[in-house]
Design brief:
The protein has one domain (about 1-95). Helix content is about 65%, strand content about 0%. The protein contains three helices and no strands.
């Protein structure tokens, strides 16, 4: 039963994976922002609109800061939902 609540394919598992993905995106944004003043730096991991590899382009600090704020909100929301799910599981286990 517990495996169905927190195991592979559960909402908890999806939220944890979402947090991992969000952390990776925040790290990538931080890397681009930290290199914004590096002469000639171009983001070699740039992606095109369709999700495939894109052409390297200079870092746009304003766009990166907006992306960081957006990703931070997504991370916080997923963390809150995960905490709520763990709280519900805890209450359920205590009630037996």
């Amino acid at each position: 039963m517990l495996r169905g609540l927190i195991g592979q394919g559960s909402l908890v598992s999806a939220l944890r994976a979402g947090l991992d993905d969000s952390s990776a995106r925040i790290g990538a944004i931080a890397n681009r922002v930290s290199n914004v003043s590096t002469p000639g730096y171009q983001d070699v991991a740039a992606y095109s609109q369709d999700g495939g590899p894109g052409v390297p382009e200079p870092v746009d600090l304003e766009r990166e800061m907006v992306a960081l704020a957006d990703e931070s909100l997504r991370f916080d929301a997923a963390a809150r939902l995960l905490r709520m799910n763990y709280d519900m599981i805890r209450v359920t286990l205590r009630q037996g």
